[in-house]
Amino acid sequence: MFYVIDLGVSGADFGGRLRFVARSAGRYAFYADRDFPLTLTDAGAELCPAAIVAGKTCVELQRADVYDLRSGQVVTLAIGPWHESSVKLVVELQ
Known about the structure:
The chain is mainly β. The chain is 0% helix and 63% strand. It has strands at residues 2-6, 8-10, 13-21, 26-32, 38-42, 45-46, 51-54, 63-69, 74-82, 86-93. Strand 2 (8-10) and strand 3 form a beta hairpin.
């Protein structure tokens, strides 16, 4: 799924939070169009990515953060602080 996420003002920068529900168990790649701060949490606990891959071959994607998620798992994505008012994110089950 491809998302354009509008961020709210957070101090002098922009930021935001949104929820994501894993439809099935597996590795999910969160592809970012720029190198903005992205943190995933589950019930307030920060999740560690299984991998972070720099986008060397695709100009449109700067990096992919890969997480192992359970079916039905609800995670919160925290974006920012960032200097632009929107970001693009592609989420893909590997």
